[in-house]
């Protein structure tokens, strides 16, 4: 039995769908499981159930973990992430979980210039000291995060960033979920650290060109200084300051640390990862 924390998130939601298709027993945890229950029923997931549990409440998690031997852990980033995920790992160990698959960060050094990556680094150390088998997935930028560009593309035919023309790794969250399902169902692939990317890198100017072609109008990428980008995200995108810092830190790091694709998805899944072209084509109506 696989317990899933983060089942309502982009990766976790796709994982639920994948496990239903594979007919694998799973338990999706949520504080409000009603929507998950409806989705599971719609997809015919007879071996997948949704249960009520709060990731910040060890007692509710302990009960939800009963009978499960594996845990998929994908928490949304937050300033109290280290505290919450550390508690989850300890509770999982006490409840009899044997293997944890954690979504982490590719920039994992303790003193990483990306603060959120530092949080993930600390959590990975907790996993290493837990005595459990653990698999760490370190995906680069989610293609789904490009949907955040929709408001300014639709209203102004432009989007903003602070990456210049630096190449950036992107990966579809559905590929991350497929990899997670693979390591959860094939024990020979468990117990490793995997860095996940798509098969190509793309700069923001290149993405602007792709959108221009698909939309048949000129879409501009406007490069901003990091502090200007930070203020823009807080004032106009209503991001909390810590999240705006995270976005700017990632984009700034991409300008100084070259990003290159890996072949990990293809090696694990036996197929190429989904392409950015296919992703943009699939969602292009949202940008009109």
TrEMBL record:
InterPro entries referenced in this protein's UniProt entry, alphabetically: Ergot_Alk_Oxidoreductase, NAD(P)-bd_dom_sf, NmrA-like
Q: Which domain of life is it from?
A: Bacteria
Q: Which residues cross the membrane?
A: none
The residues covered by the NmrA-like domain are 2-240
- What CDD domains does this protein map onto? TMR_SDR_a
The identity of this protein, by name, is NAD(P)-dependent oxidoreductase
Q: Could you tell me which species this protein originates from?
A: Paenibacillus azoreducens
